[in-house]
Amino acid sequence: MKSQETQNILTENNFPLPENTANEMNPQEPDKSEQMTQVQRDNVITNQDLPNPLVRYGFTLVILATFLFVVAIYYGIINP
Predict the structure, then answer these.
(1) Please, what sign has the CA dihedral across residues 37, 43, 45, 49?
(2) Are 16 and 8 spatial neighbours (Cβ–Cβ below 8 Å)?
(3) Residues near 28 by beta carbon (within 8 Å), at least 6 away in sequence
(4) So what's the pLDDT on residue 28?
(5) Are 17 and 7 in contact (CB under 8 A)?
(6) In contact, 58 and 52? CB cutoff 8 Å
(7) Residue 38, pLDDT score
(8) I need a labelling partner for 37 at 20 to 30 A (CA). Which of 23, 59, 60, 74 fits?
(9) Torsion of CA 62, 66, 67, 72, to 10 degrees
(10) Tens of pLDDT along 47-62?
(11) Mean per-residue pLDDT of the chain
(12) Could you tell me how many helices (H) and strands (E) the chain has, helices first?
């Protein structure tokens, strides 16, 4: 008979369980984070980089209204 160390651990369906879990194979400390490079820091988008919210929402509404107007003309709801 084989010793306990050489036998594979089996589940109900007789599938062998992995002996090493992902955490044991690739240990990482959660409190340690990778440092950002200068390029990564420069490519972060902040609220200051975005246009004024009124401009963003206004532009979106104008595009949506234009699309709906074209659709209404196409389906004959508005007859020019």
Answers:
(1) positive
(2) yes
(3) none
(4) 56
(5) no
(6) no
(7) 84
(8) 23
(9) 140
(10) 888 889 899 999 999 9
(11) 76
(12) 3, 0
